[in-house]
Design goal:
Number of strands: 0
Largest sheet: none
Helix content: over 70%
Order of helices and strands: HHHHHH
Length: about 110
């Protein structure tokens, strides 16, 4: 449980860094944080007692990019709640809204989840 809490904290921090880099147009950092998020998702799958409910709480996080990245991570776990979160985020201006809309389009096209 301690390991998963530490990884969740790292996921939150990385998602926030990703969002800040997006806003600043720092594509190198965006790519770095994106790779880090992918690696964290892989680590979660190796934890036998990991509970994805921990991610569900992140759908209400104050930072939009944390909500976005959590939603993408648990898209097949709680699809209704994830869809509501993504629809809400898609109304945001800028890259956050655009990325949320793109995820919804890919999901609706059957390419996700």
């Amino acid at each position: 449980m301690v390991q998963s809490t530490k990884l969740i904290d790292e996921f939150i921090e990385t998602s926030i860094k990703y969002g800040l880099a997006q806003k600043e147009g720092d594509h190198r950092t965006v790519n770095k944080q994106s790779k880090k998020l992918t690696n964290l998702r892989l680590k979660f799958t190796t934890i036998s007692d990991f509970k994805y409910e921990e991610f569900v709480t992140l759908l209400d996080h104050e930072d939009g990019y944390v909500r976005l990245k959590a939603a993408f991570t648990i898209i097949s776990y709680v699809p209704e709640k994830v869809r509501r979160t993504l629809v809400e985020l898609s109304k945001e201006r800028g890259l956050l809204g655009m990325e949320s809309s793109m995820i919804l389009q890919e999901w609706d096209a059957g390419n996700l989840g």
